[in-house]
């Protein structure tokens, strides 16, 4: 039978209740559709015994923490926001290799969650892990593509037990559940955003300055593609963002030489994130994006559009 | 009884499970090492893709055991190559790899490609390819870089495709999987 979100909700609430029992749990919420759905299911199952924690890593999009707090508030989920941005940047200093970065982020997340759990006496950590997260993290005869922070990025020894009600679901199915749960559209239709946040959109070493550049570029890509989609110029992409390359190239600005960073614009069509193709964006829309990025962000001198499908690429750059 | 999905390490093994469920059948994923012992509990088998190569890695001869047990089987990607390799065909490293989109040209529909148009876009991810089919098989489709994109031995109910019918990007993938499930 095709996936039935109503039936799923009932079964899932029962199985969370059976797994966690009378113990307390915390849930890691990023504001994306996966963790928000998991939070609502866990709240239904556990009532007062669940606490929702949002970690501000300093690698979130523009205004994200506030937006998420208010959208989830309207869905009846009270968020506890923990600002851990300083310790995330400190832990990531000097790390260039994507897998190393992902492992550091996974470890940092767990540290914050364990601190929160200890304060409150929680024995379980509920996560919005979905199928592609554990599939791509590898296991058995399946090769690792990347360590998703909530699976392959987890430290080997963890005090809390994991509860992952969405493990068998893909993004389009999670959205069906979100609509069935009557979550606001800014959550149910929210484009995917990776757990490690902007960290995987900064190729190479992460600094607060680079995070600021890519945050600005992502906001421009989102604004322009959302407006092009609203006016019917493009099919709304499944995921769309900017990434920063560590490569600088030469340019000329106001009759002077410039030597600045390169930004990659990526927009893809997909259903479940397992396969993807690059969105066919008209040149005038791309032109507007490149003009805005290079005019508004001084340290970017060149903008590229990524025309690679998945496979052979992945959606994010790291 | 369930459709056994033999996991050879594909990124899409669980997607096959989802596609089988969406078509109204119960699928069950088993690791490749456990497939032989579960044969009697299955209606049919789907061999997934995977990262290994039949040209260099040791493989269990699953296809011959399934054939002997008389169960319908569908091979996908590495599964397609394993069927060719173990039943008497030949697999080699291709001249060119194929990743992402590929235009599949249908030379004859047979059972597994029944109802498909002359050409359609499919998603592929491979370097090895089947260059010689086992006895009793007919070739059904090719692409610009790969000579045998689909083959079948309809009498024995053995079907295989080099591309991935289970992923959303492959056009008519549901139809192909449906054609297989109707043989069960």
Q: Taking all residues together, what is the mean pLDDT of chain A? A: 94
| Low-confidence spans of chain A | none
Q: Largest chain interface and its two residue counts?
A: A-B, 25 and 27 residues
Helical content of chain B (DSSP H or I, runs of 4+):
10-25%
Secondary-structure-derived class of chain B? alpha/beta
**In CATH terms, what is the fold-level topology of chain B?**
Rossmann fold
* Residues in helix, % of chain A: 40-55%
Total beta strand runs of chain B: 9
Using only CA atoms, what is the Rg of chain B? 14 Å
The 3D shape of chain A can be described as globular
Taking the alpha carbons of the first and last residues of chain B, their distance comes to: 11 Å
Listing every helix as H and every strand as E from the N terminus to the C terminus, the arrangement of chain A reads: HEHEHEHHEHEHHHEEEHE
How many strand segments of chain A?
9
**In the CATH hierarchy, what is the superfamily of chain B?**
Class I glutamine amidotransferase (GATase) domain
Q: What spatial order of strands do you see in the largest sheet of chain B?
A: 2-1-3-4-9-8-7-5-6
Going by CATH, the architecture of chain B would be 3-Layer(aba) Sandwich
Output the radius of gyration of chain A.
20 Å
CATH class of chain B, named: Alpha Beta
Strand content of chain A: 15-25%
User: What sort of overall outline of chain B do the alpha carbons produce when their principal axes are compared?
Assistant: globular
Q: What's the short version?
A:
The complex is a heterodimer of chains A (318) and B (184). Chain A has helices at residues 5-20, 33-46, 64-74, 85-92, 98-120, 131-136, 171-180, 185-188, 208-230, 283-296; strands at residues 25-28, 50-56, 79-83, 124-126, 161-163, 239-253, 256-269, 277-278, 300-305.
């Amino acid at each position: 039978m095709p996936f039935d979100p109503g039936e799923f909700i009932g079964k899932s609430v029962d199985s969370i209740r059976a797994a966690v029992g009378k113990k307390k749990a915390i849930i890691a919420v990023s504001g994306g559709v996966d963790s928000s759905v998991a939070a609502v299911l866990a709240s239904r199952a556990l009532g007062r015994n669940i606490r929702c924690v949002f970690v501000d890593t300093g690698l979130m999009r523009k205004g994200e923490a506030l937006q998420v707090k208010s959208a989830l508030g309207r869905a009846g989920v009270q968020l506890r926001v923990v600002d851990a941005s300083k310790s995330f940047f400190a832990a990531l200093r000097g790390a260039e290799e994507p897998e190393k970065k992902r492992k550091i982020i996974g470890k940092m997340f767990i540290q914050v969650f364990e601190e929160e759990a200890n304060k409150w006496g929680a024995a379980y950590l509920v996560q919005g892990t979905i199928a592609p997260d554990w599939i791509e993290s590898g296991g058995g005869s399946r090769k690792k593509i990347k360590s998703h922070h909530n699976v392959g990025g987890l430290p080997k020894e963890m005090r809390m037990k994991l509860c992952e009600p969405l493990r068998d679901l893909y993004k389009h199915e999670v959205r069906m559940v979100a609509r069935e749960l009557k979550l606001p559209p800014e959550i149910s239709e929210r484009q995917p955003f990776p757990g490690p946040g902007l960290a995987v959109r900064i190729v190479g070493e992460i600094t607060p300055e680079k995070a600021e550049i890519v945050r600005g570029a992502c906001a421009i890509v989102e604004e322009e593609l959302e407006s092009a989609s609203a006016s019917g110029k493009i099919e709304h992409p499944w995921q769309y963002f900017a990434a920063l390359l560590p490569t600088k190239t030469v340019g000329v600005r106001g009759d002077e030489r410039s030597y600045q960073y390169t930004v990659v614009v990526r927009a893809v069509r997909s259903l479940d994130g397992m396969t993807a193709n690059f969105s066919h964006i008209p040149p005038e829309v791309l032109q507007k994006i490149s003009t805005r990025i290079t005019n508004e962000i001084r340290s970017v001198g060149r903008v590229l559009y990524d025309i690679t499908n998945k496979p052979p690429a992945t959606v994010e750059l790291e | 009884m369930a459709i056994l999905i033999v996991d050879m390490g594909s990124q899409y093994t669980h997607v096959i499970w989802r596609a089988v469920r969406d078509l109204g059948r119960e699928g069950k994923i088993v690791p490749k090492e456990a497939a032989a012992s579960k044969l009697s509990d299955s209606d049919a088998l789907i061999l997934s893709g995977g990262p290994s190569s039949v040209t260099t890695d040791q493989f269990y001869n699953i296809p011959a055991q399934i054939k002997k047990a008389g169960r319908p089987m569908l091979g996908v990607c590495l599964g397609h190559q394993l069927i060719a390799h173990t039943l008497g065909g030949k697999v080699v490293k291709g001249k060119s790899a194929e990743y992402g989109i590929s235009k599949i040209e249908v030379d004859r529909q047979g059972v597994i490609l029944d109802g498909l148009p002359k050409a359609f876009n499919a998603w592929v991810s491979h370097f090895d390819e089947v260059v010689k089919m086992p006895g009793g098989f007919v070739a059904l489709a090719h692409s610009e870089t790969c000579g045998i994109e689909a083959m079948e031995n309809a009498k024995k109910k053995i079907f295989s495709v080099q591309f991935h019918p289970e992923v959303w990007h492959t056009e008519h993938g549901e139809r192909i999987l449906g054609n297989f499930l109707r043989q069960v």
